[in-house]
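Below: protein 1.
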Amino acid sequence: MSEQPASAPPNPATPRIMRGFEYVLFNSRWLMAPFYVGLVLALAVLLIKFVRMLLEFVVHAPSYKSSEVILDVLSLIDVTLVANLVLIVVFSGYENFVSRIDTSGNPNWPIWITKIDFAGLKQKLLASIVAISAIHVLEAFLNIETVFDATKMTWLVAVHLVFVISALLLAISDRWSSGDHE
């Protein structure tokens, strides 16, 4: 009969160290909370910017040509889309990476706030970026009669197409990875 070497008895400190390490890792998610607070402050700055743009628009709109009105409205939409994007990142990121949001106490909470997973967040981010990019291309196109720079317009369209293709490829890869091939 062959003799097996005696294995060393398990060290009782090892599981404790592992649990402690896992505890630190798990709770490190709270380091993300200040980032989300910072984004809320950025949202407040966007609100100030939006109000200034809106007041300027209202004051000057009567003397504007229709194309200038359209450009200013597109600028307001652009800031609104960026604010929506920040809001989506704050709620979804907090919910996905820090802690669940308890919406039971407030029936006015939008349903989507706690329903966006990481894949949905990526898609919403890219969709917002595509929309913002499209607005910039449209603004450049509407300004084409005053300032035409073929190189700039080409770059704007090229970057926009890259965003569109990226969003499409992300949507396809998410669908494939979820098993919805049909």
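Below: protein 2.
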Amino acid sequence: MSQQRWSEACERNRDPILAVLRRYLQDRHRVLEIGSGTGQHAAYFAEHLPHLLWRASDHPEYLPGVAERLAEAALPNAPAPWPLQAELAPVPGLAPLPDAFERFDAVFSANTLHIMSWAHVQALFAGLPAVMAEGALLLVYGPFNYSGTYSSDSNRQFDAWLKARDPDSGIRDAEAVDALAAAQGLVLVEDVAMPANNRLRIWGR
């Protein structure tokens, strides 16, 4: 039985995201995707950006479905996904990391920050220096608040739904995320408005 999962949202947002990725990743070589989820983005972006090695990663329980999807795609630039997650102990960061690997010149993550607890968001950013090469880019897609204000009624409703399901989750304030990025030497390069009241925010080292 297939272990693949499906996200309609991934199908809707993949082309708007790809348009931005084409602008920023044309001179990149290795991308780490954190929180690959269904693997739909990994397969699609690896196919349409063949000059990149696209390394998917996620919590181990989601990897069988991601690996199955990538195996079906049979793309030479989309190797097997890594088991990787934000962990709070023994120190906040990303784990487990392979014993030896080449650092990435771009890191991409979509629809993850509002699913994680704030402590895990902090851990994710704390772990970035271990995987990012000098001059690397960080690209994060999803909904954001600005100055504690929702950008739309639909985002307000979505945030209420998230918190009802898990009180530790929720749409994050852009300013708070920028502060986490700055603590890791990352500077906001662009904040791109995307369909359905989402953003694609890009930071550089």
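The chain has a mean pLDDT of 95.
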